[in-house]
Amino acid sequence: MKKLTLFASAFLLSLGSYAQQALWGGTNLVSPQINEDKTVTFRIHAPKASKVEIEGDFLPPTKVDTPFGPQDIPSRAPFKEGKNGVWEYTSSVLPSELYSYSLYVNDLKMPDPNNVYQNRDIATMTNIFLIGGGQADNYMVQEVPHGTVAKVWYSSPGLGMEARRMTVYTPAGYESSKKKYPVLYLLHGAGGDENAWTELGRAAQILDNLIAQGKAEPMIVVMPNGNGAQEAAPGEAPNSMVKPSFMNPKTMDGAIEKAFPDVMKYIEKNYRVYTDKNHRAIAGLSMGGFHSLYISAYYPNKFGYVGLFSAATSKQVNKGVTSDVYENLEDKLAVQFKNAPKLYWIGIGKTDFLYKDNMDFRKILDNNGYKYTYMETDGGHIWKNWRIYLTEFVPLLFK
Amino acid sequence: MKKLTLFASAFLLSLGSYAQQALWGGTNLVSPQINEDKTVTFRIHAPKASKVEIEGDFLPPTKVDTPFGPQDIPSRAPFKEGKNGVWEYTSSVLPSELYSYSLYVNDLKMPDPNNVYQNRDIATMTNIFLIGGGQADNYMVQEVPHGTVAKVWYSSPGLGMEARRMTVYTPAGYESSKKKYPVLYLLHGAGGDENAWTELGRAAQILDNLIAQGKAEPMIVVMPNGNGAQEAAPGEAPNSMVKPSFMNPKTMDGAIEKAFPDVMKYIEKNYRVYTDKNHRAIAGLSMGGFHSLYISAYYPNKFGYVGLFSAATSKQVNKGVTSDVYENLEDKLAVQFKNAPKLYWIGIGKTDFLYKDNMDFRKILDNNGYKYTYMETDGGHIWKNWRIYLTEFVPLLFK
């Protein structure tokens, strides 16, 4: 080990016992280690454990039958104990993707202590890693110009709230240019918030990379919070440091959709953006797809581009709710498609529990001769698909 | 339990087994639970464990003797096993603070699986919680106007890098106003990065709250990355998803200090800011205090306000380095204090390993009759002190 300066030694001491151990001791392991052949080795120092397993979305999933059709759930693989209490597991060769995993030590779930890279999905933390050389190159930070990601607060009279938080991506060059930009409004799903698309969805990396490659137009991406009773993501609003939930109030009662112009008003006042339909897109995943569908139908001449990613499409999902936002959808679509969007885009996974819902919605579009672009992928209701859909959708915008 | 809609049920299924268990099953515990009397109860579902402990900075620390004087290291307290495999621990009554903790299950360190709120300090993840009713009210998100926090990229010819990332806080009202603002440059310590002050340091909350109370002037706070070889925080630059280190190259070799005008140039070009000395402050913790000292001495007429928080002050800390940034400090201070900063502020903890270093530096100031403000606190080289120092320092600026 290299000799430390006096400052470094003293500084280390000040970190307390664990940090020193982490930096120097038995737990100073590399995990995950992405090997040259694109297998991945995971390690943990757990000398007292009798069983260590890994659960990850790179393992062949377990198929389970549910009332909503077959669903994939993650399965586990065993670590082997080696020397000095270090357990190890090496995966098979993995295709390029962003992967998630957790460890189980004596059946207790925990993160990989040597991997500080985690995503929060609602109340679940999982470690992540990326394998390059393919699809995930879009999700990785590359040597390209980077956009700015800002957490801004806007006022929403429509929701009766003075301050709501959203994430705004402005592309590289925005600050130094004087030109106007088009805007994509990008909405999260149930249990998500204004952080979901930049964290789980890698939206900033996807936009940086597609723009740098000339595949996408430079655009502003606005990621608001779609939970109508929330000011901001858990921990970012007063008294909100509680366990995040996927059941938030005021998400599918018409309020978010009706109040959407508050979001647009803030953006159009504070950013250099075009304000016409053909420079405005809206897309979302799951509940955010539901919002995108009903917002673009309720405000039929506002969005030239609409993207429904694994969207809940039927108002069956919020049975019992009465709102004019959801009434007479077919009449609204007739108005919307009279002056049709340049792009109406639908993406869904073959095993998604909303697959049939999407088929029913497509029938409405087909029966009326409304044009749309359709993409079907493997897999279910998962972030892997939403990152793919964003990567496919964004290059089609504002052309 | 309330009856779930069809959508909610299907959605839950799609989350996979763990998430469902987390939301519904045995691990759906509240932890930490801040009780009315300001004790805190921690819980974990660990039916197979034979020992569960907590390590936290709210426990009486263990004193250890080191070559650098006595240092506090965290100690642990035992959980008790209750029904159904749920272990529990309740703290004593805690004063208002931001606290950090980790769990140990059969001696293996892990986070509290029911608490998604974590801070990363170099390569160590710890759970956090806040107790209000005192000092930590400054650190909590309150019902006040919030500033914008942006991650922006600037170019640094001085470091030979096209893109480096920094965090910029603009106060509430910045977007809608036309006036100019003063700027505080706020620097992190060794092992930190451009995220440290907003995450561990709660800088956005501190600024929001002090400004809303009328205690601080509205100001822009710029938090650059002080590791000269780094484009951005680990994970935010190409090929950087590795275990973060506290030993980064090019941190104390003069390069960061010399290239500092690159940071200022970007800010002064892209934000509505005053560009005179009396509207410009610089402060930092530990290595960032060292940077603040030497930047403000090397560019002696640029900063009207200087803050050294637990600063490394002596160039002993980077022995062997030759840079004109560090030569003839007393001569440089003579120039700097000829047209003295409005405020030269020093804060240090009584048990900090840099206490003596700071005493030596104060002697230089005292011997020359250079005025400064001095604050001494309990404790050592810890974020608790740096949050306190920021809270004390910011109200003194730009008055």
UniProtKB/TrEMBL annotation, chains A, B:
GO MF terms, alphabetically ordered: hydrolase activity
Keyword Cytoplasm (UniProt): no
Classification via InterPro entries: AB_hydrolase_fold (IPR029058), Esterase-like (IPR000801), Ig-like_fold (IPR013783), Ig_E-set (IPR014756), Mycobacterial_A85_antigen (IPR050583)
Domain of life where this protein originates: Bacteria
Signal peptide per UniProt: 1-19
Key words, A-Z: Hydrolase, Signal
KW NAD (keyword) present: no
Protein known as: Alpha/beta hydrolase-fold protein
Species assigned in the record: Phocaeicola barnesiae
